[in-house]
Amino acid sequence: MHSPRSVASLQSSTLAFRNGGCSTPESTALHCRGMGDKTCFFIAPIGDRETPVRKRSDQVLKHLVRFVAEPLGYSVERADELSDEGLITNHIIDRLVESQLVVADLTGRNPNVFYELAVRHAAHRPVVHLIQFGDDIPFDVANMRAVHYSLDDPDSVVEAQTQLRRKIQAVDTSDEAGPNPISAALQLRSLQTSSEPEKEALGAVLSEIADLRLEITKLTRRLTSMPAELSKHRPQVPLTSVTVGAAVRHAVFGEGRVTELEPGGVVLVRFADGANKKLMWDHAPINTVVASDYPEDDLPLTE
Fold first, then answer.
1. How does pLDDT run across 239-254, given as a tens digit for each residue?
2. Parallel, antiparallel, or unpaired for β 146-149 and 74-78?
């Protein structure tokens, strides 16, 4: 829980927002910046001035992070806004370790962002993840829920503001950071090297679960990419041009012959391994094969 001093500061800040002309998030952003006694460090791809990366980062900072965090009593900073003299890396590390809150935009898988995120995870302090709709959350942090946003969709921005506000309020009510990949790895190592048989066994089980989760993630990625891959092999000829005995090649099952045409666009194909499969012609990754591509002697015989 917060100390009496921090709670009192937050309450007085809230009262100031209500009575000092800062009753709305918009006016807070304009007039009350820097008033919060809590710090929020925003890590994100920044890019050079006038670039799309910088524009997106500025918009996320303005319309999400500052819009939500400043009314809750936070002073928000991004690395390019630090005015302290000295080595900039030292100041960034200091913010990553000491700030009450870090908000990280994972969009674009920027290496600097993930380096800074790892520092924050190692410090085991609260962090909230953001990511743009359409971007995949990397495996290492996939189990940590992120706030999704789309700057092109006003409704999405409003929903992201609501989710971000809830997460920050949850941070305000607890001193404990949630689990992250680094803290989980350290806990697992502690269990695996424990002299207590029960803890050592638990560590082994958790290690197996982690390996299984990795394999499931790999499989999920393959299944996710499969539709795009299969779309490259969609039929190039209409079903009306397909006849019994036609030579075909399937992207997965290989070569075969059409043995039967059924209603509803269903074809029965006998493949070279002897398997008979029913396929929806318009949706299967299958094409007819001209004789020059598929010699007659190599075709599986029809029964």
1. 788 889 888 888 778 8
2. unpaired
